[in-house]
Amino acid sequence: MNNKIKNKKAVCVMSGGMDSTLGAYMMKKDGYEIIAVHFNYDQRTQKKELECFHAICNDLDIANKYVLDLDFFKQLGASALTDKSIDVPTGGIEEGVPVTYVPFRNGIFLSMAAAVAEKEGAEVITIGVVEEDSSGYPDCRESYIKSMQESINLGTKDETEIEIKMPLVHLKKSQIVQKALDLHVPLRHTWSCYKNETKACGVCDSCRLRLNGFKLAGVDDPISYE
Prior knowledge:
Blueprint: E1 9-13, H1 18-29, E2 33-40, H2 46-60, E3 65-69, H3 72-76, H4 105-120, E4 124-126, H5 142-154, E5 163-165, H6 173-182, H7 205-217
Parallel strand pairs: 1-2, 1-4, 2-3, 4-5
């Protein structure tokens, strides 16, 4: 009789940022075999994010990884992250949906991650969305992600049952920093800046949220800033 226990598998959408990296570490701690998925979508910091993704995969000893290229977003434009004619805001957190929102990005990412999960026999997809302390992106809302889970399971094989985990969705950035430190996440290998690839700008929405999180957690950010 074969007593071999089937490995639990989690497809982790990993941008190279702090949130999705912590999510992957949490899944590893919970005993999941990690399948890492990264998207190149012609974002301003694509090269740096990809470099961070590979470094984090090395840190986690992840062998199974997908780097998926999407030129669709560059053609679409409509976001300061993918259209260089639109400036990245640096004046503070914007009210409403900011110009750095990429139309339906997380929906497209989750759809592609679902295809990977079904192929790999994974029962979990993780995504590092943060609802309470985010920049106002509609595709980071818990209610939206739950609806995507339902749609994914309706649109896959009957035997496929996928749960989308959002382990950070109700955390503040300072709590994310602290939890990352507790799990010995190599935060020096993560990147949050929307503008730069060498030294973080320190003034875009994402940098401001990150720096404030480190400040409230009482520790220094290990990456370099201008």
